[in-house]
Amino acid sequence: MSTELRPEGAAHRGPAEAVADSPDRGLGGLGAAPEDAFLSVRNLQVHFPTDDGLVKSVDGLSFDLARGRTLGIVGESGSGKSVTSMSIMGLHDPASVRMSGSILLGGSELVGASRELVRSLRGKRMAMIFQDPLSAMHPFYTVGHQIIEAYRVHNDVTKAVARKHAVEMLGRVGIPQAARRVDDYPHQFSGGMRQRAMIAMALSCDPDLLIADEPTTALDVTVQAQILDLIRDLQGEFNSAVIIITHDLGVVAELADDILVMYAGRSVEYAAADDVFNRPQHPYTWGLLGSMPRLDRETTDRLLPIPGTPPSLIKVPSGCPFHPRCRFRDRVGSACTTVRPPFREVETHHHIACHLDAEDRDEIWSQEIQPSLGARS
C-alpha cells in the first residue's frame, strides 16, 4: 500500500494521480483497528469468466470487523453483497472463479487456502445463515440430523450427546417442543421456524464470525423482529463478529454498528451506522435513504426512487460506476465519467468513493437531501 488515504483538507491530487490509486488503499479505521480485527478483508476481487465476458462481482473491497461488533452490508441486488459472503465462507467453485486480495480470519488467510483448511474453519470459526433456509437445508434429513452432523464434525462426541445439544440449541432459538420437533423435516417447519433452525445450526459450534445473508427475507414483520432480537442476544452471549447482508436499511438500523454501502461490486461509503443515517456523504446512499419509507412520522411526500437500474457487472461504466444514475454528476464535470474515484476518508472513520468535494456535499445535503428525508438532527 504505497499511498495513504488523506482526510479532506489534505493536499489535493489531480485525476491522473487518483486513477493510479487502488480504491481501498490505506484503510486504517474501517470498522476496527487492523490489530483488533478478527476479520480483515483487503482489496478483494471476485470475478467470474462467462461466455459474455468477465463478471466483476466484487472489485476491490476492504473492511475490518472485530469480535462483538456488527457490520451491515447494504446495496441493491447485484451489488456484490452475497458474493462477498460466499467468498469469506469459501463456497465458490475454484474452477469457475478468479479471486484475489486477502481475507484474514483470526490470522488465517482464506484466499488461496486449501479446501481442507477452509472446511475446518467453516462451522467452528465462521458460520452463515442463508437467505432461503428451505433450499439451504437438505429436504431428505431431519432438522435435528443436520444440526447433529454439523456439531459432530467439529466436536468429538457421541451421537446422543450431539442430539442433546441439538435439542438445546433449538430450544434456545425459540422452537417450541424442541425435543419433539428435532425429528421433523424442514418442510414441516414454518418460514420463521426454519430460519430459527438455520440459526441454531449456524450457532451450534459457537462460531467466532456469523454471516446473516438476508436473514429476514419473506418473513412477517413480527417474525423479523424476533429473528433480529435473537441474533442480537446470541451475539451478546457468544461475543461473535456479525455481518448482516441486506437491502433493508431498517434491518441494519436495528443491528449494525457500522455500515458498508456497496454498488457495482465496490464500496462507495463506509461509516458508523449513526453517521450513515444522520449524515450520509455519497449520492447513492442518499438515494437509498430517499427510497425508504419513514414510519416514525407522518408524511405526504412521495418516495424518491433512484432513477435507472444497476449496471451490468460485465460492462461497468467507466469512472464512477454510479454516474449514469447520479443527479449531481454535472457539478464535477468529466471526472465522474472518466476517473474511478478513490475510496478516501472525508471525516474521521467515514470513507466514501465520490468526486464531489466537501463544499458541494454539504450544500446538497443541507439544501436538498436532508429536507426531503426529514432526517434526524
Written overview of the protein:
The chain has 14 helices and twelve strands. The protein has 377 residues and is of the alpha/beta class. The strands form two sheets. An eight-stranded mixed beta sheet has the order 6-7-8-3-9-10-12-11, with helices on both faces. Strands 2-1-4-5 form a four-stranded antiparallel beta sheet, covered by helices on one side. The two termini are 37 Å apart. It has helices at 15-20, 81-89, 115-121, 133-136, 143-154, 159-172, 178-181, 191-202, 221-238, 249-255, 273-278, 283-290, 335-338, 358-373, and strands at 39-50, 53-65, 70-74, 98-105, 108-109, 126-129, 209-213, 241-246, 258-263, 266-272, 344-347, 350-352. Helix 5 packs across helix 6 and helix 5 packs parallel to helix 8.
Summarize this structure briefly.
Helix 5 (143-154) crosses helix 6 (159-172) and helix 8 runs parallel beside helix 9 (221-238). This protein has helices at 15-20, 81-89, 115-121, 133-136, 143-154, 159-172, 178-181, 191-202, 221-238, 249-255, 273-278, 283-290, 335-338, 358-373, and strands at residues 39-50, 53-65, 70-74, 98-105, 108-109, 126-129, 209-213, 241-246, 258-263, 266-272, 344-347, 350-352. It is of the alpha/beta class and 377 residues long.
